[in-house]
Amino acid sequence: MTRYVLRRAGQGVFVLWAAFTVAFFVLYLLPSDPAALIASGGGEVSQVDPAQLAALRAEYGLDRPILVQYGDALLSALRGDFGASYVSGASATSTVAQALPETLKLTGAALVVAVLGGTAVAVASVFPRARFLRQALSAVPPLGVALPTFFVGLVLLQWFSFRVPVFPAIGNEGAISLVLPTITLAVPAGAQLAQILSRSLRGTLGEPYVETAWAKGASRTRVHLAHALRNAAIPAFTVLGVMEGGLLGGAVVTETVFSRQGLGRLTVQSVNQQDVPVVLAVVVFSALVFVVVSLVVDLVYPLLDPRIQVRAETRPSRSRRAGAVTA
Amino acid sequence: MTLQTLSRPATEAAPASVPAPARGGRPRRAARVARHLVRRPGLLLAVAVLLLVAAWAVLPQAFTAQDPLGGVPADRLQPPSGAHWFGTDHLGRDVYARVVHGASLTLRTTALAVVVGLVVGSLLGLLAGFLRGWVDDVIGRLVDVLLAIPSILLSLAIITALGFGPVKVAIAVGIGSVATFARVMRAEVLRVSTSVYVEAARASGLRWPAVLGRHVLPNSSGPVLALVALDFGTAVLAVSALSFLGYGTPPPAPEWGALVSGGRDYLATAWWLTTLPGLVIVAVVLAANRVSRALEKTGEDQ
Questions:
Q1: Residues B173, B234: contact at Cβ < 8 Å?
Q2: Model ipTM value
């Protein structure tokens, strides 16, 4: 077990390093001139004095070979330093760390709503006796997946902030301001989960042990919830890590729609101002959240399903990519 | 066991799993597709939606006589009516005309994004599945990492470096979908290249490039095609989200995401400005997903 945990943690560190590397080379190798960006301070890139540009390049170390810059940036990043924002001059790490809690609150709430809602929809799409009802409910998750986040947010605002003023339209004040953004963010994630779960449920309901449960006279509710759902749910929850990542991405649009402060808004501002260090820090932090959530899921997973054995001891090498956990 | 008996499955098995055997002739195939569609009204509707939107993109003038850019100030903020199907905006511009004319902008960006994802992703998947060994390992790890970064953040990082504009948005969105294409392509190449008829083709002396072109690519195209349709829907969402955030064609160009964003200031008074263009996006994505499901199913049936 210890070896399994260590290896999963090692994989997490690798993903973080690689995310940093990919983001670094995307941001620093593509044709743009960071020095001109710094000189313009986030405004329009206009004619800047060449001598001033050269001085800035020297100051930020941008005149060195790219690999030297990369090595330097990686060492600093390991110490938690992603450089200074081109715009404000503040540390990119602390800028991101300040914005992160609000967004984690939002995505955490959305994750809970998505899991509960997604599970409810998935169960509802297999439970009813009437065929047309099952078919109608099965159409809900594909619809949810097709809804653009910004569209959901604006329609909710329209109905529940303007027509019927129940919730505030903007801001971070109090739990009530969290309701509409949470729903907005939870719709695509919940729909995705519902799709996976209802497919898994349909498979499970055809299995012999469910047949046995029916034969023993278990009620419809008991067969669906106690027998089928318990087994169907476990594989569906392996996607939680990817889902949390998706929620962080969705926060970019959601926070813009609802004018909330947070990581998403910070991202939009930094992209608008081409604030490279902050964007780099945002990407690495979201990869970190993904890694942590995936790690927790992987560690809890064998506890939930006793059939699953951690294979680290029996099969040391060849299971790397497939993930170490197999049913 | 001679080479001749071995090579037989190559000629027999390959056409069987190619989606459309050419021997049946075009009319019969068309009739079969038509019958298939009539029995599935949802799929028929999805295809109709996609065709309509494609027609908007190619020939917008045929669908609306109104000017998408110049408005009539006297007609500002009118609700939907017979004269203005989708109402008018704050400058008196016809929203339906703007949606129709915006189709070419949004769909062109989306199509380019899909092509970028398809070409780069398939190439990576092909290399990984075909060369195996360390190339497979390196590409596999790269794909894992691309999947770990939320695709919109990856797109935004690319936009930070490249700047704004429709082509840059297309590249950013396309790179965001490279990982999925690479995965599916690799799996398909592995499946096909271990099959008996490929082995037979190799054994009968066909060179690798020919095996690739004649057997591997045609037989792995089914799932990739379904993924193209699916990715088209996802790309419409991503492109319109980035255009909503203001990274696409600058205003007054009627890109769909920008249209929805433009209605934000009139949420309380003019619902049609956000709702109707938004519903058009939803319809296109739903249609693309439906077609993708159908393609996936045909692949499985065969």
A1: no
A2: 0.84
